[in-house]
Predict the 3D structure of the following.
Amino acid sequence: MPTVSLSFLNRGTVKQVCRICRELGEIKTERLCADCVRIKSQITVRFAEAVRGTIAIPDAQRCERLGCLCAACDVGTLGSHPLYLFDLTRADRREIHFHPRCHELWLEIGGRRPEQDTGISQG
Protein backbone atom coordinates (compact mmCIF):
# COMPACT_ATOMS: atom_id res chain seq x y z
CA MET A 1 0.00 0.00 0.00
CA PRO A 2 1.50 3.44 -0.96
CA THR A 3 2.03 6.07 1.72
CA VAL A 4 1.41 9.78 1.26
CA SER A 5 3.32 12.46 3.10
CA LEU A 6 1.47 15.64 3.98
CA SER A 7 4.55 17.47 5.21
CA PHE A 8 3.77 20.39 2.87
CA LEU A 9 0.92 21.34 5.22
CA ASN A 10 3.36 22.22 7.98
CA ARG A 11 6.07 24.40 6.52
CA GLY A 12 7.88 24.78 9.81
CA THR A 13 6.24 28.06 10.81
CA VAL A 14 5.37 28.17 14.45
CA LYS A 15 2.51 30.44 15.40
CA GLN A 16 2.88 32.51 18.52
CA VAL A 17 1.08 35.45 20.11
CA CYS A 18 2.35 38.94 19.22
CA ARG A 19 3.32 40.84 22.37
CA ILE A 20 1.60 44.06 21.22
CA CYS A 21 -1.59 43.16 19.33
CA ARG A 22 -1.99 39.73 20.95
CA GLU A 23 -2.83 38.15 17.57
CA LEU A 24 -1.77 34.58 16.84
CA GLY A 25 0.59 34.41 13.88
CA GLU A 26 4.13 34.01 12.65
CA ILE A 27 6.35 36.09 14.90
CA LYS A 28 9.08 38.23 13.35
CA THR A 29 11.63 40.30 15.25
CA GLU A 30 11.17 41.51 18.83
CA ARG A 31 8.27 39.06 19.38
CA LEU A 32 6.09 41.12 17.00
CA CYS A 33 3.84 39.98 14.16
CA ALA A 34 4.51 41.21 10.62
CA ASP A 35 1.85 43.94 10.88
CA CYS A 36 3.28 45.35 14.12
CA VAL A 37 6.80 45.30 12.61
CA ARG A 38 5.49 47.26 9.61
CA ILE A 39 3.73 49.82 11.80
CA LYS A 40 6.77 50.21 14.04
CA SER A 41 8.99 50.90 11.02
CA GLN A 42 6.47 53.44 9.68
CA ILE A 43 6.50 55.27 13.02
CA THR A 44 10.29 55.34 12.99
CA VAL A 45 10.32 56.93 9.52
CA ARG A 46 7.36 59.29 9.95
CA PHE A 47 8.36 60.60 13.37
CA ALA A 48 12.15 60.51 13.15
CA GLU A 49 12.51 63.77 15.11
CA ALA A 50 10.44 62.42 17.99
CA VAL A 51 12.37 59.14 17.96
CA ARG A 52 15.68 61.03 18.08
CA GLY A 53 14.33 63.28 20.83
CA THR A 54 14.83 66.53 18.90
CA ILE A 55 11.26 67.78 19.40
CA ALA A 56 9.21 68.08 22.55
CA ILE A 57 6.39 65.58 22.85
CA PRO A 58 3.22 66.80 24.57
CA ASP A 59 1.22 64.70 26.96
CA ALA A 60 -1.30 62.35 25.41
CA GLN A 61 -4.97 63.25 25.49
CA ARG A 62 -8.06 61.18 24.76
CA CYS A 63 -9.96 61.75 21.49
CA GLU A 64 -13.57 60.59 21.31
CA ARG A 65 -14.16 61.34 17.62
CA LEU A 66 -14.68 58.48 15.19
CA GLY A 67 -12.90 58.14 11.86
CA CYS A 68 -9.68 60.01 12.73
CA LEU A 69 -6.79 58.70 10.65
CA CYS A 70 -4.11 56.94 12.67
CA ALA A 71 -0.75 58.62 12.08
CA ALA A 72 1.05 55.27 12.18
CA CYS A 73 -1.05 52.98 9.97
CA ASP A 74 -3.35 55.38 8.03
CA VAL A 75 -6.53 53.52 9.05
CA GLY A 76 -9.51 55.31 10.59
CA THR A 77 -10.23 54.94 14.28
CA LEU A 78 -13.42 53.30 15.51
CA GLY A 79 -13.48 54.41 19.11
CA SER A 80 -11.74 56.39 21.80
CA HIS A 81 -8.01 56.70 21.10
CA PRO A 82 -4.84 58.59 22.12
CA LEU A 83 -4.26 62.06 20.63
CA TYR A 84 -1.20 64.32 20.69
CA LEU A 85 -1.48 68.03 19.94
CA PHE A 86 1.76 69.53 18.64
CA ASP A 87 2.08 73.31 18.47
CA LEU A 88 4.79 73.57 15.83
CA THR A 89 4.28 77.31 15.48
CA ARG A 90 1.50 79.53 16.74
CA ALA A 91 -0.35 79.18 13.44
CA ASP A 92 0.48 75.52 12.83
CA ARG A 93 -1.14 73.05 15.19
CA ARG A 94 -0.85 69.36 14.33
CA GLU A 95 -3.02 66.57 15.72
CA ILE A 96 -1.59 63.08 15.79
CA HIS A 97 -4.04 60.25 16.45
CA PHE A 98 -3.12 56.62 17.21
CA HIS A 99 -4.98 53.34 17.52
CA PRO A 100 -4.27 51.76 20.91
CA ARG A 101 -1.94 49.19 19.28
CA CYS A 102 -0.10 51.83 17.28
CA HIS A 103 0.16 53.96 20.42
CA GLU A 104 1.90 51.12 22.28
CA LEU A 105 4.43 50.90 19.45
CA TRP A 106 4.83 54.71 19.54
CA LEU A 107 5.59 54.55 23.26
CA GLU A 108 8.21 51.85 22.68
CA ILE A 109 10.01 53.75 19.97
CA GLY A 110 10.31 57.07 21.68
CA GLY A 111 6.99 58.86 21.92
CA ARG A 112 7.35 58.46 25.68
CA ARG A 113 8.58 55.68 27.82
CA PRO A 114 5.70 53.64 29.32
CA GLU A 115 6.75 54.53 32.88
CA GLN A 116 6.44 58.23 31.95
CA ASP A 117 3.06 57.82 30.29
CA THR A 118 -0.13 58.84 32.06
CA GLY A 119 -1.87 55.53 31.34
CA ILE A 120 -3.50 56.68 28.10
CA SER A 121 -2.24 53.60 26.24
CA GLN A 122 -4.66 51.38 28.08
CA GLY A 123 -7.26 50.31 25.57
Q: What stands out?
A: The first strand starts at residue 15 and ends at 17. Residues 113-123 have pLDDT under 50 and may be disordered. The CA atoms of residues 6 and 94 lie 55 Å apart.
